[in-house]
């Protein structure tokens, strides 16, 4: 499906209303407990999920929407936000301790989804986290938005599932899938 700039500009402008302090806190606590020092959100939008990551964490975000990246850079000047396609992430192999998505993969067509997953896998050194709206049949929700069966899709990679559960409703209503790389792939 083609990129609809106006749709995504409007999405970026409304992104603050989607801020979920419970999810951002969950991410902060997870990153800390896994001792990750670098985190990349693929499809970061305005960076709302990354805001609670503290000192000692190198924060990266990638998004195709310039308006969203501009807002993210303004709110989090210490972070590295890049305007880029998730199908061609401008980071080295195994260069991030954690790569994650939060409701990005639900918006991608199958071809784009597979390319984005391949890039996330390439860049992830230790963990991949997918938080997406789940249903095994991957039916359409509305418009271009689809349920995704990310556990099945990630099963074709040699990452090890650590968690595959619905998130607690006080945190979010999506499926939490955490994968560990089979060995420490960090290049640093």
What does this structure look like?
The structure is a single chain. The chain is α/β, with parallel strands linked by helices and 188 residues long. It has one domain: Rossmann fold (3-Layer(aba) Sandwich), CATH 3.40.50.150. 27% of the residues lie in helices and 26% in strands. It has five helices and nine strands, in the order H-H-E-E-H-E-E-H-E-E-E-H-E-E. The strands form two sheets. It has a seven-stranded mixed sheet. A two-stranded antiparallel ribbon has the order 6-7. A hairpin with an 8-residue loop joins strand 8 and strand 9. Helix 1 packs parallel to helix 3. The longest helix is centred in the middle third of the chain and has 14 residues. The model has no long low-confidence stretch (mean pLDDT 92).
């Amino acid at each position: 499906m083609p990129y609809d700039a106006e749709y995504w500009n409007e999405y970026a402008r409304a992104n603050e209303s989607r801020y979920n302090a419970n999810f951002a806190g969950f991410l902060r606590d997870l990153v800390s407990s896994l001792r990750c020092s670098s985190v990349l959100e693929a499809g970061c939008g305005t960076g709302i999920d990354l805001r609670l990551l503290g000192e000692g964490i190198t924060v990266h975000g990638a998004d195709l929407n310039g308006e969203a990246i501009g807002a993210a850079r303004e709110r989090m000047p210490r972070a590295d936000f890049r305007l880029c396609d998730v199908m061609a992430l401008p980071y080295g192999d195994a260069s991030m301790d954690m790569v994650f998505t939060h409701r990005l993969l639900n918006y991608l067509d199958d071809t784009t989804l597979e390319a984005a997953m391949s890039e996330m896998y390439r860049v992830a050194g230790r963990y991949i986290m997918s938080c997406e709206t789940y249903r095994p049949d991957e039916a359409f929700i509305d418009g271009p938005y689809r349920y995704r069966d990310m556990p099945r899709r990630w099963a074709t990679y040699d990452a090890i599932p650590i968690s595959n559960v619905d998130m607690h409703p006080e945190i979010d209503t999506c499926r939490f899938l955490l994968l560990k790389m089979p060995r420490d792939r960090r290049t640093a």
